[in-house]
Design a protein that fits this description.
CATH superfamily: Aldolase class I
Distance between the termini: 28 Å
Number of helices: 8
CATH topology: TIM Barrel
Radius of gyration: 17 Å
Structural class: alpha/beta
Number of domains: 1
Number of strands: 9
CATH class: Alpha Beta
Mean pLDDT: 91
Largest sheet: 9 strands, mixed
Shape: globular
Strand content: 15-25%
CATH architecture: Alpha-Beta Barrel
């Protein structure tokens, strides 16, 4: 099923990066990860073949459900706000050529942040890369060294070992974050607290936007 969703994305779209399937765009507060609490403009692109069962953005999986929008139109909307930073997320944005978008954001002096599983060769120049590896399709080795932030979602006990697997492969300056999957918060949060106390290289990330009831 996940492979079928991905193959519906026209290859010319993934390669040129001038138009992207836009799921949503909005100005809000970064709710999770290292930059939690900062104002940011979010660009969510459609298309994903990783299909995590706990994904909270399943609507984004099938790119064909979302209109193709030019990056010029997308960035023009960003410039209508006071946003100093843009977060490009998905779906899995790594399936697209993001160099045109990242270049246009940088040309307009907007900090550009990327959220990705790292499963595809990354394109573009980014001020911050949040790499969140997934079991269904593991990240490329080359992307691990590019990550500024390693954010591992904790759904069950096996995810702690999964997190340690990638910790040993990122660069020494990479921020290490564990984040409870929202539906499993009551079960996993206490375990995460103890884990981080015993493994203090890690920090805890929470999806604060869900508690603050903001997009």
């Amino acid at each position: 099923m996940s492979k079928e969703l991905y193959t519906r994305v026209d290859k010319s779209i993934t390669q040129n990066g001038i138009n992207l399937p836009l799921v949503e765009e909005f100005y809000s507060i970064q709710g999770e990860g290292y930059h939690s609490g900062k104002a940011a403009y979010f660009i969510r692109v459609g298309g994903c073949d990783i299909a995590c069962h706990w994904c909270d953005s399943k609507l984004s999986w099938n790119a064909k459900l979302h209109p193709l929008v030019s990056i010029e139109d997308i960035v023009s909307k960003v410039l209508e706000t006071p946003a100093q930073s843009v977060v490009v997320t998905g779906g899995e944005p790594g399936i697209y050529n993001l160099e045109p978008l990242s270049n246009l954001l940088r040309k307009n002096k907007i900090n550009n942040f990327l959220e990705t599983s790292g499963a595809y060769k990354l394109s573009g120049e980014w001020d911050w890369i949040c790499l969140s590896p997934k079991k269904n399709k593991e990240p490329l080795t080359e992307n691990l060294q590019l990550a500024h932030e390693l954010k591992v979602v904790i759904f069950d006990d096996t995810d702690f070992e999964f997190a340690e697997k990638w910790k040993s492969q990122v660069n020494e300056d990479c921020k290490l974050l564990l984040q409870p999957e929202y539906s499993q918060f009551d079960k996993m949060a206490p375990k995460m607290v103890e884990y981080v106390k015993n493994n203090p290289d890690w920090n805890i990330s929470l999806q604060s936007h869900k508690y603050l009831n903001i997009p």
